[in-house]
Here is the input.
Amino acid sequence: MHDQPRYKPLARSEFFADGRAARPLPEGTVARGGLREDEALYTGKAGGAFIEQLPVPLDSALLRRGQERYGIFCTPCHGLGGYGDGMIVQRGYRKPSSFHVDRLRNEKAGYFFDVLTNGFGAMPDYASQIPVSDRWAIVAYVRALQLSAHATVADVPADYLTRHTRQWMASGRSSLAWQDDIGQGLIEELDLRRLRAVLAEDDVLVSSSRMLELLTGRYIRNANYVQMLRIKYADNPRYMDDCDLAILLAWETTARVAIDARARDVFRKLVEANDQLPADRPGVVHIGFEAIEGDVVERLRYEKIVENARQFDPRGKPLEWVYCHYFMPESPPDQAWAFDETTQWFGIRSTGPHPLGEVFLVLSETARSRRGPHWADPST
Ligand code: HEC
Here is the structure.
């Protein structure tokens, strides 16, 4: 093998008359690649500090591009919603912080660009795989994710529904479905025939789940409804005899912050109850609540309680078991009134099997055959 002679950058040369190995560029040379003069665009910084805002115009095309690139490059670890729960993480990769914690919500746009460009701790950099313009598109999308996870109904523009309703009316079609940055929706004609057919024979309880089922064709447990009806009352004014106009609005918010705020924990109640326990004999605490917030919220509440209970310190009290009883009232269309019960229990300093045996306080023998919490199988 030969040693190939070569110069190191800026080394001295005996060969050239000016003694420099580095040769001046021939006149008229054009640089290859970009000049990268725009510091903000290429580094996310201005004067050494991260820039607050995107250095590129924000429009829906940028967000769509960002969403697509985010889906390709970031979801394996950060998850679709940015909660740090991607598939690779579920299989053991280091779990990144959620994008929705205050620290990252308050971070500047330039910071995110910098992480993508240079990497961060266990996270590799993406400078060679994602071009600059796409990196900013991803940053814009991460920002949108952060906003959406903290949006509440109050952030929805006041004319949001009016706008879509006008659009629907102008379209002349029987239904209009849409999906945008705020949400998705469907407007369609209600078919009053089912309700009126029943009303021809019978009276129907006003605002009951039976009425909603007849109007919409299905029964949704825990749906939020706003309704406007033109009805003829029956002799008993809780019932209707006829209805010839109905406007129904069913809605649901899936923003994590809204769900989180409603899934209140029982921690304070547990502290209070524990304080009241006698110190000289084993104690059990039962906490019961009306689980009226809907399945998504109750499931999260359940998880929060499990997490907090694990760390609960009974401060010297011989508290052995805690039971949480979820009573969920509902009025299915075929019954006047009913409720479902779910029991959650956990041992604090348990010494034996849990004393309740059968886990339900109220429900009957037959109801005991249901397995799992009531939100796990909405069909029961
Ligand atoms: C292979 C897994 C993986 C991929 C893919 C990935 N990240 Fe990360 N990311 C991480 C990990 C792990 C951390 C935390 C690193 C640490 O704390 O050492 C992190 C940290 C971050 C942080 C800094 C968070 C903080 O706590 O300050 C940001 C911002 C970020 N990632 C954005 C992204 C974006 C945007 C993408 C897509 C281009 C992406 N990441 C792709 C794993 C990944």
About this structure: The first helix runs from residue 39 to 43. The chain is about 30% helix and 20% strand. Residues 256-369 form one domain.
